[in-house]
Amino acid sequence: MQRSRFGLGWMTVVFLFLYLPIFTLVVFSFNDSKLATQWGGFTLKWYAEILNDREVREALWLSLKIAFLTATASVVLGTLAAFAMVRYTKFKGRTLFSGMVNAPLVMPEVIIGLSLLLMLVSVQRAFGVPERGVLTIWLGHSLLGMAYAAVVVQSRLLELDKSLEEAAMDLGCRPHEVFRLVTLPMIAPSLLSAWLLTFTISLDDVVLSAFLSGPGSTTLPIVIFSRARLGMSPTINAIAAIMIFIVAAGVIFGSLWLARAEKRRAEEQAAAYREALPSP
Amino acid sequence: MTNAAVAVQHQSVKADDSFLTIRKLTKKFGDVAAVDAVSLNIRKGEIFAMLGASGCGKSTLLRMLAGFEIPSSGAIVLEGQDITSLPPYERPINMMFQSYALFPHLTVEQNIAFGLERDGMPKGDITTRVTEMLELTQLKQFAKRKPHQLSGGQQQRVALARSLAKRPKLLLLDEPLGALDKKLREQTQIELVNIIDKVGVTCVMVTHDQEEAMTMASRIAVMKSGGFLQVGPPREIYETPATKYVADFIGNVNLFKGTLSVDEPDHVVIQTPECQHFVSHGITGTLGMDVHVALRPEKISLQKKAPTPQERESAREDGFNCVQGIVKNVSYLGSYTTYHVKLSTGTTLKVMNTNDARHDDHRLDWDDSVYAWWDGSDVVVLTQ
Questions:
Q1: Domain B18-244, what architecture?
Q2: Do residues B283 and B381 touch, judged by C-beta distance below 8 A?
Q3: B103 neighbourhood in chain A, CB within 8 Å
Q4: Residues A234 and A152 in one domain
Q5: Size of the A and B interface in Cβ pairs below 8 Å
Q6: Which end of chain A has fewer CB within 10 Å, C or N?
Q7: Within a domain: residue A277?
């Protein structure tokens, strides 16, 4: 009893620490007062202000665009990398390869950003392209996202029953058909998870974007960051609230959908076995 | 050579006219040979079972037939075509997997049609063939369901239908009933054999369950450490096991260690600490050599009184094939009862008697002193 009460208390403290700031942030985005510490009544004017704020609007649109491109590229590259690591266990330099795929996960982002910047600058000097902007941010984010996607897809591939792929081959599939017709549909849920994960990673990335963005390609987190340095304004609260809403909506709908599919599956399975039993 | 001998030889050549030939097939994983220079002929239309404990190499052999493992050396020839290095998708062989490996995102129908579509069969023909397979396996009402909406037995039938749909020359079964519970297994064994017979496909199966092998197969190969110990029909494997391991692995057996004390062309006598074993056939061996005597529990008679000479006609003298002991364990199992009889040498003799009368007046109980005897033709002498 004593133990569980302590556990409950500890859990409450941790969750308050995690979520209270976010909660306050959202609440104060409706605050009708310039002062962030004082409640001055309910208002939607900060949201209206964002709608009229061209910089924020463009940054949000750019961020969503980059996140979309990043997530897509990360999932494609990450899946290929994961497939190579799980299915081809014997090629030369495999350890080095998997180490390099996972390196961006542990490498400090500042270092990745800086080295990418140095490389891109010298490439641009030599060839005149690429101009720093959407393309360079996308490349940087995809580098990071690919590592995350590879981890997610790899874990799903590892638990996949290998005999499914063998059965496909046994029934006449060439290796690329096995991948397209059996492996891909089997790992589809993990591809969706990886896509959502890399989408969020890209959407709120500041460090890489700061190094790789050029004039006229400012992402939303960078806008928020630079405005916050000039002092907290309730518009930032509103922008943040919108971002939280986008991400939360994605996560909630995603998990609801998965949970419902899982539940329906379990019910159908139970029904099949009930039916197979002889009626009493 | 007489005409009859020629005829017999001709016939045996024809019977051995092999459909599938495995020649000195070896698979090494590192230094270990999982399958070691195995040679085998399989006849068209037979159900051949490879039986063995786990790790004996039976699955590796099956996977080499399917094309999932590349042999280190040796050859596989199917109907005169060397298929040793063909990839799985080019072999006229299909496999039913132990886990069934049904594609969970496809319906029963789509699962069965999967292989046919890969072959580029016209749509209409696919529909006909799928319907035929659904009827064969009595799955018609489940055609639109996904695998997870089926019971274990139904899934097994889908797996079978899918592996038969392409009309393979050779069907491979990997522990075909391993995932089913005992009651369902017995019923399914017969169903499975009936379907395979109806289709007439040659079949190689792998199992660790001797009952499954005996019920389904026309021939069995007992495997140990990558090689065959004995190949033959179920009855032959059971009644005349070639080695001690086979005798022990297939069914229950009493094994006695002894020496060959009388060696005549028509009979031999083996001396073991328990008794003298009179064997009513000759063996190839030398006097005084170490041998094992194998005796099936159901071949042994058991009663309280000493058997009369009429009861044991083939044991010509007293002291042959007869021991005395004390019942130490009685397990009543319905249709039969097993007894553990402790002999004076300390050995335990397993005896199995059918319960053919409902009220048995001569019922044996714990600590009863009993005589056990057996016929000289039931003794198997094992020299290896």
A1: 3-Layer(aba) Sandwich (3.40)
A2: yes
A3: 164, 167-168, 182, 185
A4: yes
A5: 74
A6: C
A7: no
